[in-house]
Amino acid sequence: MKQNDDITGRPDDDLDRLRARFGGSFDLSTRTFTAAGRTLTGVYLDGMCDEKKITDAVLAPLCLAAAPAGAADAAGFAEYVRASLYLGAGIAEAKTLENAGDALLKGAFVLFLPGVPFALACSVPGFAKKSVDAPETEQNEAGAKESFTDDLKDNGALLRRRLRTPKLVLEADTLGTVSKTQILYCYLSDRADAETLKKVKKRLHETSFACVPGTGALKPYLENRTASLFSAVGSTERPDVLAAMLCEGRIAVLADGSPFALIVPYLLIDHFRTADDRMAGGVYALFIRLLRTLGFVISTVLPGFFTAVCTFHPEVLPAGIMLDIAAAEASTPLSLTAETLTIHLIYEIVREAGIRIPRAAGPAVSIVGALVVGDAAVRAELIASPMLMIVALTAISSAMSPKLHESTAIIRLTLIVLGGTTGFFGLFTGIGAVLALIVSDAPYGVPFSAPFAPFSLKKQSDALLQAPLGKTKNDRIRELKAE
Amino acid sequence: MKQKNRIGAAGLYTLFLISRLPPLLTVVSPADAAELADRCVLFAPLSLLLLLAGVPMLPFASAPSRGLLSVSKNRSKTLCAALTGLYTFTVLWDAAAGTAQFKLFVDGVMYPDVPVLPLMLLFFAAAVFIAAKGIETTARMGAVIGVLLAATLASVLLTTLPRAEALNLEPPLQKGTLSFLKSALHAAARTGEPLALYAFTGRVAGKKRVGYALWCVGFPALGSLLFASLLSVAGKSAVNQMFSLYTLTVLSRLGPSAHPDALIAAVWVLCFLVRTAFYLQTAGAFLSQGFGIKESAPLFLILGCAVLAGSLLIGADPSVFGRITSAPVGEALFLLTMFILPVFVHLTRRKTPEEIAEKRRRL
Predict the structure, then answer these.
(1) ipTM of the complex
(2) Is 3.40.50.2300 the CATH number for B3-352?
(3) Coil/strand/helix, residue A146
(4) Per the CB 3.0–4.6 Å rule, which of A44, A418, B169, B218 could disulfide with A430?
(5) What is the pLDDT of residues A88-113, one digit of tens each?
(6) CA-CA distance, B183 to B294, in Å (whole number)?
(7) Chain A nearest CA to B224, separation (Å)
């Protein structure tokens, strides 16, 4: 079997077997040309290579150069071909068809030479890719306007441009038995925790992936937990954010074909910090981070709290407000708890539809959501207007820390049920259980709730507070782990 | 030892405070109500008693890597088994008595018209869940809830301050010194938290002795302040209040809400949740030390069921609660488990070969 895989030096035979390996795919193209009196055959995958580069760096030099005297035998001819190409380090020998196939898949032009028992793989990748663009999911006011692309090399360069130090390690690896996706482990060798890096590699390698379509597919394996509501793996499409995170001692994983980097460990406080905070100044940064934290609390607790107050503890609200709410709720057909649950489920449906629907149809969802749910339902007295205010405030608050949406949605619905059936007792029992989940988590050995629980005064400099850049602890992850 | 099974000294003493304050302020049994005036100062002898004795620090000095029960196992396995049974029972009993107070509060104030059993089942499910997460988690929760509790107490004290009348404070010791000291012992008998020091001996990191001294002084001082505040605001009517802090919160009228008490009751739920989980973990730690039972979710579930049954029994109604908790057997059990048995185990302990070798090496 192994014998059949070797390149024989008979280009026609080798080409036939290569075509068979690719199942006769239409994009496997060949170029036959003459150089130094011999007929050469080049193979490439159409769309994976830059055709101009093939012509300029491979075909032109070979066709135009005169053959030296020593190129008569096969070995000398191979050496002549290798020396004539304009590709330098981008030329590799492929002794088997498997090697040649792998090279083709990476965007190489593979040359079969008559009488030579190996092929020359010339790296001329040139597939269509997205250019460096402004970030789509992480907006900021005054920060960089670049985001990662789908190309791994571009992403590595974007990162290196921001961290011009040899300590930045971009370690390549391949995952996926079928997709053979290239991934990069990115870290600063003097700041990243070696044990965490080992754990990241182990977690990714102990699972046998067939296909890795992007970094999203790797996330569950980096989590390696089944029953946690909060993700310990962050993601970003911003090179500036990733550079700052690496400086704190974190480790990132980039995958070819994906514009998002995964970051470990990712803590709760990271959801409340943005790239803009550094420009805002200490006092405003503290204020805005507190506001984001409050937004998280409102988005999880407010609907359950409202349900508990209206159902079990009306005395908490001033009488006038309570009477207005009671009057509005009196005409609706559902009980308050059922109404709260329904309206929040509708909100989740509208949100999900808004994300998945093609952009052209997006406004339709907005119109239907706003008019049907927002206006008509209130006019038809299916939903009370105070409830609409609650869901609106919840949705807006939830948007302040969008990456926490998955967790907040589940917690919110659970607290609505608890608050609606058992009042403050159940609501706060539920909050206690959620708090236990938050403080018990320690992804990669760093407490998820650090530096608040366990509390550390020294580590507050870049938590809710924003210390000047020179005074922030750069290797804080390692310090938090040691705490 | 897994990280989740270790605890810092600051976290442990925060848990002590979170565990002790809410029961202290939740229910004043009819038997104690008459001595409420003395309560403002009776914490002083309690403080002295705990501090001077300092017996709970003994294991840290004599066998810091082992607990009290491990030390007793060296002497006799039977003694160790008996002590394990006694200490586990005492902790579970304290947990049940505290939760019974909470049950009376829920039943009497929060939801007088709602069946309490489903609520207690929900509460215990959450407490077992938290206990299964480990002592470190409970300590971190304690720190977060401690901030809430401190804010609650501070706001209540500040808002009731304008209503305080110095003349409402009666002179203590009106019934004589003996009655006063009995009262102090009775209050001390409810302070079962230091038993956790025997359970978690090898697992506590940090300044244990300083923390113990601070707790011995700080907790009684805070208790005295709160009771003095209650008496100065509510006067003689405070004697008739079963839920003393609740009375203060009703009087405080915080912010725009006419009834902040419901919100403050919510903080109570969180405090009792942490307290119950902490007691379950302490009982679990004793069983682990004495019998080698693994501290796992099923164990905490069984212990939780026992505490639930106990709390329903003790907290059936206020008079039952008063009768059971004022029985002198509680005080005897406190003196026995907190002081007499640890001193006995310490005096009769056999050194392990490692300890003997260490002593020789030092000589």
Answers:
(1) 0.85
(2) no
(3) coil
(4) A418
(5) 658 888 999 999 998 998 889 999 98
(6) 39
(7) 28
